[in-house]
Design goal:
The complex is a heterodimer of chains A (about 160) and B (about 500). With about 160 residues, chain A is mainly beta. Chain A has two helices and 16 strands. The two termini of chain A are about 35 Å apart. Chain B has about 500 residues and is of the alpha+beta class. Helices cover about 35% and strands about 25% of the residues of chain B. Chain B contains 17 helices and 22 strands. In chain B, strands 13-12-9-10-11-14-21-19 form an eight-stranded antiparallel sheet, with helices on both faces. Chain B has a five-stranded parallel sheet with strand order 3-2-1-4-5. In chain B, strands 7-6-8 form a three-stranded antiparallel sheet. In chain B, a hairpin with a 2-residue loop joins strand 10 and strand 11. Chain B is globular, with a radius of gyration of 25 Å. The interface between A and B is large, with 52 and 48 residues.
């Protein structure tokens, strides 16, 4: 199975030949890949070098935490790549985002209004939980199409707070 | 000598105190909320009593219920830990009135240091320099505050006299914004502490937060156990502490230590406490406040002095003399503590709630882990996000940093996100390694996204790992069915095969 794997615009062509044999950009490696501790921690012995990392699925792709560094990785197999090239758009990325509460808590402030344009990193909601006031920030730029909470509201985990389009 | 101690707390600090009591041959009584039935402090203690539902005010803040339980269980003393009831004068007094020993300072000292404006006035009278600001006892009107502000100079801080935990604080940069900010600070202080009084304090730029551990007995002996460097903070919450501080030399340590002891004497302090200072670039130091309790970060002091602070608290609380004089206190090596919190450093440090599926703490030489968590524990929104404290000792600061890097790499916590990557990044940070930081460093000059020079980068390994994970995810469902027990789950298997289109 062949994959194209990308980190920060750097692409790697990785082919998984057997359970213990891969090539990366044409170079052959012997691998032993296991989840020793349990997911999401994985252990890789590659050409006798041992590595352990957390690999978490996120909206932005697979997140790899390895030796104190974080890598955001996108992995595509040949079929996925073909599909993307045929459809030619990033339709999914432009869809609306429902910003959900990461934890139960109390809404302290909502410093934005419906219809307002927001930038990535803008404060959308201030949520008090675990004895702290937490800022919920915009994951990307967009227009606020829905404000579903008011200051003073108690919210549950995963309750929709704000919708951005 | 008393025989039994009730610990009015939860989490890692309750476990820490139970350990000290058991080593001293004392029996222990735990109290717990409905959320903590399976907690380590409940399991480690000799006796355990349910207080009530998870919210703190219905459980760990029920002082009267806790005192009743102490009496019923035959406990002779109550250790409050930190947070909850630790700095409540009324609770300390009620414990004494019930004929029990409060393992901590006298109620009068808690009161004198609990009101920040009174504390400033008290230590000033004892000849201790405070951060420049308003004088007196904090009952100033808005107009008076606005009149005094330009004399103090901007930027300045408006702070709640009853303050703590970073609440009721506003930063003013101009006179114009003072009225609005005073109102906001008063409102927050009123909500948090039931007291809207505020005072003003000059904002010291590029300052460091350095505190001294105090031990005092009932015979007039007050000693300090050296300093702790606590400048690495985010929104007034400490993230990492070390002892000694890379900033201090022996001469400055002695001077600050003497002033710290004088400040403690000014309120007839008893037991363990901490004097916090701000130190500016010219090494001028100013009293900030006193914490009249055991601190979260006390282990770094224990590792460099060799003194078990909690075990010393107990004989002192029974009127015994300190076992040490100032000359006995020698700092040996270097200790660093990382607070491991359930929060996501890649997402604005938002708390991460959920269950701890698995936890494998680091171990080996020079590593200490103070923790109250266990697999299956839910990190709930009711309490703070501290999972554990990882403390490393080394012969030098350099050794301690290298050991901390090693320990952080070993730590495995599964089920929720933690700030371990933040600490790993700090341990790689050139500014941290060279001791060049202040209280604003994390917020203003540190980014999780910037790569540190010389940090190990292994994108090709990350790429291979991610690819193998993705490969296993797409292929494991069919693999599992192929290798699994088809006889047992024949219908399930058939349905799955249909969906997979095979």
């Amino acid at each position: 199975m062949k994959y194209v794997t990308t980190i920060d615009n750097q692409s790697y062509e990785i082919e998984i030949i057997t359970k213990n044999e891969i090539t990366a950009d044409g170079e052959r490696h012997t691998v032993d890949f296991q989840s020793v501790v349990g997911p999401p921690v994985v252990s890789l012995i590659i050409d006798d070098q041992s590595y352990e990392a957390y690999v978490n699925p996120t909206e932005a792709g697979l997140e790899v935490l390895l030796r104190g560094q974080r890598y955001l990785v996108s992995v595509e197999d040949e079929r996925q790549r073909l599909l993307r090239e045929v459809s030619g758009t990033n339709a999914v990325r432009r869809a609306e985002i429902q910003l959900k509460s990461p934890m139960p808590g109390l809404i302290v402030a909502v410093p934005i209004e419906e219809g307002q344009q927001v930038n990535k990193g803008d404060n959308l909601v201030i949520l008090e939980s675990m004895k702290m006031q937490n800022e919920i920030k915009a994951p990307r730029e967009g227009k606020v199409t829905g404000v579903r909470v008011n200051p003073g509201d108690n919210v549950d985990q995963n309750q929709v707070l704000v919708v951005i389009n | 000598m008393f025989k039994k101690v009730l610990i009015a707390n939860r989490g890692e600090i309750a476990v820490r105190i139970i350990r000290a009591c058991h080593e001293l041959g004392l029996e222990t009584v735990a109290v717990y909320s409905e959320a903590d039935r399976a907690a380590l402090h409940v399991r480690y203690a000799d006796e355990a009593y349910l207080l009530g539902p998870p919210p703190a005010r219905e459980s760990y803040l029920r002082g009267d219920a806790i005192i009743d339980l102490a009496k019923c269980s035959g406990a002779n003393a109550i250790h409050p830990g930190y947070g909850f009831l630790a700095e409540r004068e009324d609770f300390a007094r009620a414990v004494q009135d019930a004929g029990l020993i409060f393992i901590g300072p006298k109620p009068s000292a808690i009161a004198a240091m609990g009101d920040k404006a009174v504390a400033r006035a008290t230590v000033t009278a004892a000849g201790v320099a405070v951060v420049p600001g308003t004088e007196g006892e904090g009952d100033l009107t808005d107009d008076e505050l606005i009149t005094i502000a330009p004399k103090i100079g901007f930027p300045l801080l408006i702070k709640a006299t009853a303050g703590g935990g970073g609440k009721g604080i506003r930063e003013a940069r101009t006179l114009k914004e003072m009225p609005g900010l005073i109102l906001a600070a008063r409102r927050e202080a009123e909500a948090a502490f039931g007291d809207g009084n505020v005072y003003l304090e000059k904002l010291l730029l590029n300052a460091r937060h350095i505190e001294f551990q105090i031990l005092a007995d009932d015979h007039g002996n007050v000693i300090h156990l050296g300093e702790r460097e606590c400048s690495l903070q985010r929104r007034h919450q400490k993230l990492l502490e070390e002892s000694p501080s890379p900033l201090l030399d022996e001469e400055l340590r002695q001077r600050m230590g003497q002033v710290a002891c004088a400040a403690a004497r000014s309120v007839n302090y008893l037991n363990a406490g901490t004097i916090e200072f701000l130190v500016d670039k010219e090494h001028n130091f100013y009293f900030l406040e006193m914490n009249t309790r055991l601190q979260v970060e006390h282990p770094v002091t224990e590792l460099v002095t060799g003194i078990d602070i909690v075990k010393e608290q107990i004989p002192i609380s029974q009127g015994q003399k300190l076992r040490y004089t100032q000359d006995d206190i020698k700092l040996n090596g270097w200790a660093i503590e990382c607070r491991i919190n359930a929060e996501d450093p890649f997402n604005n440090f938002l708390p991460s709630t959920g269950f701890i599926d698995q936890i494998t703490p680091p171990s080996g030489p020079g590593v200490r882990v103070d923790s109250g968590v266990y697999p299956g524990l839910e990190i709930s929104p009711y309490y703070d996000s501290l999972i554990s404290k990882l403390i490393c000792w080394g012969e030098t600061r350099h050794d301690a940093i290298l050991r901390m890097r090693r320990a952080l790499e070993e730590y495995r916590i599964l089920g929720l996100r933690t700030n371990i990557p933040f600490h790993q990044k700090i341990m790689q940070s050139h500014h941290f390694i060279t001791g060049q930081f202040d209280t604003r460093f994390v917020e203003e000059r540190f980014s999780m996204d910037e790569a540190e020079d010389g940090a190990e980068s292994l994108p090709h390994i990350a790429a291979i790992m991610a690819t193998l994970v993705a490969h296993h995810q797409t292929h494991s469902s069919s693999n599992l069915v192929r290798q699994g027990n088809r006889q047992k789950h024949g219908w399930k298997w058939a349905g799955r095969m249909e969906r997979l289109g095979e």
